[in-house]
Design brief:
Strand content: 5-15%
Number of domains: 2
Largest sheet: 2 strands, antiparallel
Shape: flat
Helix content: 40-55%
Low-confidence stretches: none
Number of strands: 2
Structural class: mainly alpha
Strand order of the largest sheet: 1-2
Number of helices: 5
Distance between the termini: 53 Å
Mean pLDDT: 79
Order of helices and strands: HEEHHHH
Length: 105
């Protein structure tokens, strides 16, 4: 899909120029992530274009160098409050350390 992008594309252009539904489906299938067995029910389920959103946001927060919640919110097209309240919970001790740095002594 990257190879099919026009040569004039920049890094800020969308990867999927029209609907990314089929492109994400293909990527998930190619990566062997499209179908999975629900551990609670044993049923086979499928992932879609939104399934990896929490993972992507959390990885950006954990692995991004000096990214603010505002940067991540803009990338994910969500609010700063949503990023802080919902997604930035992977490592509560790190959140507490960052917040503690803003307290008055």
């Amino acid at each position: 899909m990257l190879a099919a992008r026009p040569e004039t594309a920049t890094e800020t252009d969308l990867l999927f120029t029209e609907s990314h539904r089929e492109g994400m489906k293909r990527l998930l299938k190619d990566a062997g992530l499209y179908e999975y067995r629900d551990p609670k029910t044993g049923k086979m389920l499928t992932r879609d274009r939104k399934s990896l959103r929490p993972t992507g946001i959390t990885l950006r927060l954990d692995k991004g160098d000096n990214l603010s919640h505002r940067d991540v919110a803009k990338w994910a097209r969500t609010s700063v409050q949503m990023v802080a309240d919902f997604y930035d919970q992977a490592h509560p001790e790190q959140v507490a350390e960052r917040v503690a740095g803003f307290r008055r002594e």
